[in-house]
Design a protein that fits this description.
98 residues, mainly alpha, 0% strand
């Protein structure tokens, strides 16, 4: 969860940062419960060791998928470096003042 929070804080544009942080926090809090929902029945049907190992093995394809589908996460950016934003996000971050 700390790694995801760090990536969100460094890579998310300023305009939607609050919404993205809230979504990331929700996933971080709900993810372990979903893992328990999977691991509990697997441990009941087999053993705790099988549940643990199968959970780790299920994470591997997920990590490969995320890594392959989001090449921008592999790019290095210095903390505090300016973000590339779309005109829509730039306009939302700095609305015209009357």
């Amino acid at each position: 969860m700390i790694s995801r929070s760090t990536i969100v804080q460094i890579r998310a544009p300023d305009a939607p940062l609050g919404r993205v942080t809230a979504a990331e926090q929700t996933v971080g809090q709900g993810g372990p419960d979903l893992g328990n929902l999977r691991g509990g029945p697997v441990a009941d049907w087999t053993s705790g060791t099988v549940a643990l190992v199968s959970g780790g093995l299920l994470c591997l394809p997920a990590v490969v998928f995320v890594g392959a589908s989001t090449p921008e996460l592999r790019e290095h950016a210095e903390p505090g470096a300016p973000h590339e934003t779309t005109p829509e996000l730039r306009d939302a971050a700095a609305p015209d003042v009357l």
